[in-house]
Structure prediction request, 457 residues.
Amino acid sequence: MKYLLKNGTVVSGEGSRQADVLIDGEKIVDVGRNLDAEGAEILDAAGKLLFPGFIDGHTHFDLEVAGTVTADDFETGTKAALLGGTTFVVDYASQDKGGHTLREGLKKWHDKADGKCSCDYSFHMSVVEWNPETEAEIQDMIDEGITSFKLYMTYPAMIVDDCDLYKILKKLGQCGCFAGVHCENAGVIDALIAEAKKEGRLGPENHPLVRPDTMEAEAVHRLLAIAKEADAPVMIVHLTNKKAYEEVMAARKKGQTVYAETCPQYLLLEDSVYSKPDFEGAVYVCAPPIRKKEDQDCLWEALGKEEIQTVATDQCSFSLEQKALGREDFTKIPGGLPGVQTRGTLLYTYGVREGKITEVQMCKLLSENPAKLYGVYPRKGVIQPGSDADIVILDPSREDVISAKTHAYNTDNNPFEGFKLGCKIDDVFLRGHHAVAGGKLKEEKLGTFIRREKNML
Ligand code: DUC
Ligand code: ZN
Prediction:
């Protein structure tokens, strides 16, 4: 099928320009002025922005958390993603503790995802145990197209200690790969939880108090010291606050390669949400928690200065019934929130329209940088001849409001409920398929597993 997108503004990491885009089959074949193509279906994109398909490097679909499983699996989750302009997700697969292999983890995630996805997909691999077999499997993962990894400094089922952290980072660095690391100080958080419970403080308003910014910053500092010793690049995933940001900047000043990711919830929500009445604070329970206004301001400023490389979502959704598992004890609330459907429209509305970032920077944050970091550039992340025809058409003249009543997630709550949007995404192309048209999903389950190269940012 051929499509000609006429008169839109094509956005890239270098700039925006008025151009037509010709799609033939799965690929973009031409970008330029006054293009013509016999037999092509023509779409008028005048007044609209054409972004390369958004890439979300941080999702959790079909994941077991706190004795339950995320409300969105790869089927519902990738539909919501595509409706929001995300054409490629990199979900977190995981090894299990107790002598299990990375290969078993990868198979498990392929079983969850294959044949179910409506956008393209890949996996990072979470390493939770380190031994000679796991070490040998790193190359196996790379051969399977899994070129990025994840490490946790918190959560009993996932945590690796500093000794293993050093060894794993060193190995990954030697292989030309990097890990995204969840940075929170597990020991102090455990102590703060024990104190809260002893004092009978069991509501969701205690969640941010037991996972303070200082304990994220401490873990970032420690991680970066270990990474320096291991001579390895790392990414801080879901960076939430000013103190942790300052640790990143201090390490970079000393010459370290440190990438940073943040998420819309840390840019747009404040920790007062945890004190909402009637247990509504549970909706916002995620780790690390939502922080304060000064942290938001710091993150926006960092985005404007291009000190943060990508905005992902940490998509991890639960129904209110699932959140209620922690009604008597906030530590039992399954942690996570949905976000894949609204990342682009939120970033455009509250970032670009408010002058905090430019549309070019938005393109870098959502498309170009993640494509490079996750080794799929220039196949993805750019609108140019030869690239996959993954294209988001964003209309800046439309308005919308986020609501759980209309969203595509398999949940009855949305942390951005009531947020006004100053744009709309009505059309999305996935590898040349006009999969979202008129704001509706027209073609499902076209997603393919993408084998990735190594980081090229
Ligand atoms: N944080 C969450 O809130 N949920 C899933 C994983 C994570 O790191
Ligand atoms: Zn996560």
